[in-house]
Amino acid sequence: MNFFRILIVLLIIQFKAYALIEVDITRGNLSPLPIAVSPLSSDKKSVSEFEKILKIQNIGSEISIVVENNLKQSGLFNPLEKDSFLQKPDIAHLKPRFEDWRLIKAQALITGKVEIIDEKLRVEFRLWDVLAAKEMLALAFTTVPSNWRRVGHIITDKVYERLTGEKGYFDTRIIYVAEEGPKTKRIKKLAIMDQDGFNLKYLTLGNELVLTPRFNPTNQMVTYLSYFRNLPRVYLLDIETGIQEVVGDFPGMTFAPRFSPDGKKIIMSFASEGNSDIYTMDLENRIVERITNHPSIDTSPSYSPNGQYICFNSDRSGYQQIYVMRRDGSGVKRISFGNGLYGTPVWSPRGDLIAFTKLHKGKFYIGVMRTDGSGERLLTENFYQEAPSWSPNGRVLVFYRETKTDEKGEGFSAKLWSIDLTGYNERQVQTKTDASDPSWSSLLSN
Amino acid sequence: MIATLSLPFLSRTPIDLPPIISVELIQITDKTIIPFAPKAKKIIEKVKKKKKERLVSEQAPPKKVKKEKPDAVPLPKKKIEKVKKIEKKKQNPEKIETEVKQVSEFEKKELFDPNNIAALIDKSKEELAETIKTTDKVTQSQDRNVELAGLSLSEEDALKAQIFGCWSIPLGIPSNKNLLVRIKLQLKPDGSVIKSEILDHARMNMPGQGFYKVLAESALRAIRLCQPLRVPTTGYERWKDLQLNFDAKEMMEG
User: Measured between beta carbons, which residues in chain B are less than 8 angstroms from residue A13?
Assistant: First the structure.
């Protein structure tokens, strides 16, 4: 009987069970992440001490401004207006009232404290996930007070890495050629500055023409092109000691130098009797090795980050194109096949892309392509621009652009610009004078 | 081959309706001359008899023309046939029955618990009540399908659109990796989140998968930012457990 009852009930009831519903979210919001950078709190004693040493009234606020500007420049973050903050910096650093930060639409929050201990600057900071109401990162640094801007850059790098998943590029420097005077009588000096344009220093006096400075990825050495006995030659310069030397004793012109990823070799072009080939020189034993041997112009060599491959440009096909070969010069393969001329190839530190300058129909482009030549993307177009250099994380390119300064097209101005891989975040890098040939250093604090 | 060649041809005849409009005009003129001529004669006779009613009798024929239009034009007949066909599709009982049967048989095997009949009765009551609420818009059979199949397209679109706006994709993640984050949610009837669980949690701490943690956190932030989620107003049982598959690959390769 029971069985029949159950059967009847079964017939009456319509059973319903629900398979787990899955919804695919394949699109998102590429707008910058709203982030609140609270001024770093500081006690009265520390404030007055810093004022004496650094002549800065509120060091905590200044460091937070460095962080804020860095995050804004990256294009990935939207630092919120400080006027809208409801919580005081010192209390927020102890325990943020997350509902207050949610109210102003912040998704992440940076708080911190700065103090002076034994004449040293001590900074601690915390990164908070406002929506999850939890701490994501907490670190402290101690350094000499004059390093306060670097502390701001290091904080930005840590925050950037925690929120984006890739290393930052803020505690870095850019070396470039500072230019002054009319185009026919230009004074060119080697200059170095922080990536945000501060702490500018000139490394040469401007007596000799300097071109194409390149950082050693492992230390504070720089290689560049200058003139020695009226011949363009590759130089080495130690930024910390100021000592410079000519690289090798070549019977002709050497140019387009660049370090190997381990910093132990220099790869460059050597021109003689109308032909130009690629050579390397070991910086320890000074042994020179010829890499290409072709009756065409081979130049602008750049190593892959693992040091196994070299990209370069050559006109061996009749037009200037990009080629890739093994480090010993074997297996040369052309990778650029688009319309126009391709030059200044630079291998990304991530290894996945090669940046280049392209000239097509009278316009210059900065673009990227995969290492096999596929997926070419032109990021920016202009009247004249070239010489891209990668940020150490392979996300941003810095290059220089010349612009006409009046309606007649007379006069010109050369400035540094940066653009990220999306092609949207294009910004001018502030320099005191005109600037060209930038090269981005690796992270100073690894 | 015959089907592909002939069926589109057949189906095109009623679609090529615009030229018929010109034919229509011709038919109307032809017919208006013929059937109304005798009437006009009668009218003229009447007019002769009643000289005062001239204007009224002159206006009368056009009214009759309008009435005869549908008879002269083949278009409405075909339309009616079409409507009938659509109705047949809607009513199509066989298809719906098979779908329902398949699902219910499957459920019986997995989920039938004789000890839990009371609970099932209660649930069915609730669900019946919910379907009654929506009968104005959706038929019972349609509603049943939606409930058993998942979210309707419009419901899914609404939810997706909401989360698209909340999800800030971390742009630093590599585009050549597996960028799928699956999050299982337990929801309240108002769409707020009771519990969220990352299904591939083990990946969070795996070497070389640092980006996954960042990506998973961004997905969780999106859910928190969006809640209460834009869920349907009915059928809570259907979507109280929901899985969101966040995949940034398309955007990163973009």
Answer: 117, 120-121, 124
The CA distance from A158 to A151, in Å, is: 11
For B179-212, the DSSP string reads -EEEEEEEE-TTS-EEEEEETTGGGGGSTT-HHH
One domain for residues B80 and B11: yes
* Between A403 and A316, the higher pLDDT residue: A316
- What are the angstrom distances between the C-alpha of B76 and each of A242, B13, B24? 94, 14, 12
In the block, which residue shows the tokens 């040493």? A53
Partner B contacted by A395 (CB < 8 A):
yes
By three-state DSSP, how is residue A39 classified? Answer: coil
User: Where do we find the tokens 């925050």?
Assistant: A159
Q: Which residue among A6, A15, A24 places its CB closest to the CB of B104?
A: A15
Most confident of the ranges A19-28, A361-370, B201-210: A361-370
Same domain, yes or no, for B82 and B122? no
SS3 A261: coil
The pTM of the full predicted model, rounded to 2 decimals, is 0.74
Largest CA distance in chain B: 108
Domains and CATH numbers, chain A: 33-164 (3.40.50.10070), 173-440 (2.120.10.30)
Average pLDDT of every residue of chain A: 90
Q: What average pLDDT does range A23-39 have in this prediction?
A: 91
Domain that holds residue B137: 112-149
